[in-house]
Amino acid sequence: MYKNALATYQEVERETLSGRETEARILTKGAQKLQECQKNWDSDDRSKLLDEALRYNQRIWSIFQVELARDDNPLPKQLRSDLLRLSAFIDKRILETIAYPMAEKLTAVININRNIAAGLRQSVANP
């Protein structure tokens, strides 16, 4: 019974959230996954958690890159260009962390995700 109620709630939530709020939630989830890895860096399952968190964030930013590169993207050209450069930095940081895992390497991506999520939420609140 609870599973059906939860599934129904999640479906309604998906249908009613704005695109920007959805992006903010996804970025926040990515930051949370990375922060959880930092917090539990010495745990036995760090490798698994880190791989999952890095892949999740890599997917987020890959999707953003595709959307930002589209000619019909409604964002101003300079903002798109800046976000694409930022996404290239994130790609590089993720690959560096995969090759040479260090907890402190996650901080930049965590902060970027959170700051962009906050900006997206602010733009939803103040259109």
Please give a quick description of this structure.
The chain has 127 residues and is an all-alpha fold.
Structure, explained:
This protein has helices at residues 2-16, 19-39, 46-69, 77-99, 106-125. The model has no long low-confidence stretch (mean pLDDT 88). The chain has one domain: Flagellar protein FliS (Four Helix Bundle (Hemerythrin (Met), subunit A), Up-down Bundle), CATH 1.20.120.340. 81% of the residues lie in helices and 0% in strands. The longest helix has 24 residues, at 46-69. It is mainly α and 127 residues long. α3 (46-69) runs antiparallel to α4 (77-99). Keywords: Cell projection, Cilium, Flagellum. Pfam families: FlaF (PF07309). This is Flagellar FlaF family protein. It comes from uncultured Desulfobacterium sp.
The name of the CATH architecture is Up-down Bundle
- CATH class call: Mainly Alpha
Strand content: under 5%
Distance between the termini: 38 Å
Tell me the count of domains. Answer: 1
Q: What kind of sheet is the major sheet?
A: none
**CATH-wise, what's the superfamily?**
Flagellar protein FliS
Stated plainly, the CATH topology is called Four Helix Bundle (Hemerythrin (Met), subunit A)
User: Whole-number average pLDDT?
Assistant: 88
Which spans of ≥5 residues are poorly predicted at pLDDT below 50?
none
- Rg (C-alpha, Å): 16 Å
Q: Share of helix among residues?
A: over 70%
